[in-house]
Amino acid sequence: MKLIIAIINRDDANSVTRALSKKGFSSTRLSTTGGFLMAGNVTLLIGLEEGKVQEAMDLIREHSHSRKQMIPATTDLSVGGYPPVNVEVTVGGATIFVVDVDRYEHF
Ligand code: 2BA
To answer: Which of 5, 7, 78, 101 is 20 to 30 A off residue 85, Cα-Cα?
Structure first.
């Protein structure tokens, strides 16, 4: 048994969970916050058999899109009366971890 931990953009979360559910995958959705942008994202926990991992990853990939986002650069760059500089960051898609599950019980 495997556990997929998928961090996805909040805007893609409904589409991803719907697609997973349609194909029979169970998932739990957690509201999370990225440590860099401090913006909300969604983390999905998906428990599944090893042979189904690729299918689930393909579904997540199909429904997750990367986005470019402007964020203010550090205040160091805005000293001396110059306005703060914005930098462009590309936020994935999805960040996915697949881990082994030692034991699974469902009551
Ligand atoms: P955040 O940590 O808010 O990061 C958002 C985006 O900011 C990242 O997109 C990346 O493009 C950029 N970024 C992150 N850390 C950076 C840094 N130290 N310097 C410059 N740019 C940086 P993604 O890589 O697509 O990540 C999206 C979200 O996925 C992350 O949100 C975080 O919540 C999660 N994530 C990504 N990699 C992770 C990892 N190795 N472990 C745990 N969570 C991760």
So the answer is: 7
Beta bridge partners of 5: 45, 97
Q: What is the largest CA-CA distance in the chain?
A: 63
**36: enclosing H helix or E strand:** none
Distance 89 CA to ligand 1 centre (A): 10
Site to probe by mutation for ligand 1, drawn from 91, 96, 97, 98 as the one with most ligand atoms within 8 Å of Cβ, is: 91
Q: Estimate to the nearest angstrom the gap between the alpha carbon of 63 and the chain centroid.
A: 11
Task: Tell me the pLDDT tens digit for each residue of 56-90.
Answer: 999 999 999 999 988 887 655 555 666 678 889 99
What is the per-residue pLDDT across 22-35, written as a single tens digit (0 to 9) for each?
A: 999 999 999 999 99
78: tokens are 């805005």
pTM: 0.89
